[in-house]
Specification:
By secondary structure, the chain is of the alpha/beta class. Helix content is 29%, strand content 22%. α1 packs parallel to α11, α7 packs across α8 and α11 packs parallel to α14. The longest helix has 25 residues. It is globular and about 70 Å long.
């Protein structure tokens, strides 16, 4: 614990009270709400969303071609089949799917929009979280028994932008993809996209359709893999089987494939590397120096692989409308970018696709009875809870597979926990680690064996993981399925207690 947090331990007796509050109405939050509604129908709940719409990432990002790197048979919910033709879907299609889910399960009556969580204080006397939220009408207070954080992992207020020398001199349009200006004109203009991640590789082929030329300027290469956006087998199967059965089969197939590929990169990285680079050479021919522009210095999945659907990046390069430059930026000039090599890239528009700024738990302040929580001093419990922090679950998906796979498993476990607590008449669940075990266990980063800069910049603020279960964040779907679905709730590491609260429970109050 650190010094006293600014919210203290004030008793918000007038606050609206729920059994469960979910923070965030993105993919994770909507999925968790459906689970609660179906598996814990006796629990009251609310979803508090900082923005004015459902969707999270898929409503926030509006840059050209915004799409998922994951197929929708695994990024979609296991309870709602994806039935569109394309399995690699664009942002509007994913957003439509999420809104359909909210309507189908009548979730909108539970969602409070324009509610930004700024502080959460656990009150031991009540056995409840006391929340302070910013709204357009001022600060509002809520209380809940269990807090489920589904706010994602990056800042909605700022993207990562290096401090390039001379940036202010540039006379053209300087854009960050997270804050894409409506009506930006780039037709017949020279565009430079700085970056080599999924955003850059989406922007380049899409902008090249209108721009005079688009250059992807990268400091270092990223591994890429191409794949059709239409899954012909999935579409064939859906025409012949009931939609849910067809969806489950494809979801199982794709999940097994994702995990096999990832494990292969851990066991035989050189072989996977040769295979990936061979496919790039086959697709792009002699137009690009593959060793220079598409061969990273690290092994596959030490950082995230980038998907190129329908070979769109390769086709843009082959058309002459796009190119790749691997170099370092010396400075930004009035007319473009000066590189360390001496080359100058002329630009009318510069898109700074240099990544995200991570935040822990949506950037809110957390405290226990008024004492601020320093999560970096705690251990993770199954990659979703934190030692000594009661009744708070943090949803974080996979970095090596579809995000929603793990979000679904966590939501399923939360419902198991709530039902177990109902049966055993317990109200407080807190992970506790024995001092001797903690002293002897190796401390590892919360996401281990992953060198991506956007993660490394923030991981020192996250709880640590150990090398023994349940004090680990496996990032392995096969292990997680067993851990979340089969292993007992009362596992000896999760302390279950009963808070003494002399007031009506929220179960007797209307939503």
């Amino acid at each position: 614990m650190n010094s006293t947090a600014n919210i203290g331990s004030v008793q918000h007796a007038d606050a609206e009270l729920f059994d469960v509050i979910i923070i965030g109405a993105g993919l994770s939050g909507i999925g968790a709400a459906v689970r609660l509604q179906r598996d814990c129908p006796d629990r009251t709940f609310a979803v508090l969303e900082r923005r004015g719409a459902i969707g999270g990432t898929w409503d926030l990002f509006r840059y050209p071609g915004i799409r998922s790197d994951s197929d929708m048979h695994t990024l979609g919910y296991d309870f709602k089949p994806w039935e569109a033709e394309k399995s690699i879907a664009d942002g509007p299609a994913i957003l439509s799917y999420m809104n359909e889910t909210a309507d189908e399960f009548r979730l909108r009556e539970h969602i409070r929009f324009d509610h930004k969580l700024v502080a959460a204080d656990w009150c031991s006397e009540r056995g409840q979280w006391q929340l302070s939220l910013e709204t357009s009408e001022g600060t509002r207070r809520y209380r809940c028994g269990l807090l489920m954080m589904c706010a994602g992992y990056y800042s909605y207020d700022a993207g990562h932008q290096p401090d390039f020398i001379g940036k202010d001199r540039f006379k053209g349009d300087w854009v960050h993809p997270q804050f894409w200006p409506e009506g930006l004109e780039y037709a017949d203009k020279k565009v430079v996209v700085i970056g080599s991640g999924a955003t850059a590789m989406t922007l380049v082929p899409n902008m090249s359709r209108q721009a005079a030329h688009v250059t992807m300027l990268q400091r270092s290469p990223t591994y890429v893999t191409s794949r059709p956006s239409v899954d012909r087998f999935a579409n064939w199967l859906r025409r012949r089987l009931p939609p849910k059965l067809a969806y489950d089969i494809v979801r199982w197939r794709n999940t097994v494939w994702q995990q096999w590929i990832y494990r292969s990169t851990r066991i035989m990285p050189s072989l996977v590397k040769r295979s990936l680079l061979s496919k790039v050479r086959d697709e792009i021919g002699e137009l690009v120096d593959v060793d220079k522009h598409f061969t990273p210095s690290y092994n596959p999945w030490d950082q995230r692989l980038c998907l190129i659907p329908d070979d769109d990046l390769f086709r843009a390069i082959q058309s002459g409308k796009a190119s790749v430059v691997t170099d370092h930026i010396e400075s930004v000039s009035e007319e473009g970018i000066q590189l360390v090599s001496g080359e100058h890239l002329a630009a009318d528009v510069i898109v700074c696709a240099t990544g995200l700024e991570l935040v822990l738990l949506g950037g809110a302040e957390f405290s226990l009875d008024g004492e601020a929580v320093d999560f970096a001093n705690e251990w993770t419990y199954k990659g979703m809870m934190c030692t000594n922090v009661p009744n708070m679950v943090h949803t974080f998906g996979y970095i090596n597979a579809s995000w929603t796979l793990r979000a679904d498993l966590i939501a399923t476990w939360v419902c198991r926990l709530l039902n177990h607590m109902r049966t055993t008449e317990k109200t407080v669940a807190t992970p506790r680690i024995e001092e001797t075990l903690a002293a002897g266990m190796r401390r590892r980063l919360w996401i281990d064996d992953f060198s991506a800069g956007y993660m490394r910049r923030m991981l020192d603020r996250f709880p640590r993981q150990g090398d023994e279960m349940p004090w680990m964040n496996p990032q392995d779907y096969r292990k997680d399925r067993k851990m979340f679905r089969d292993e007992p709730i009362d596992d000896g590491a999760l302390s279950l207690e009963t808070a003494r609260v002399d007031e009506p429970t929220p179960l007797r109050e209307a939503v």
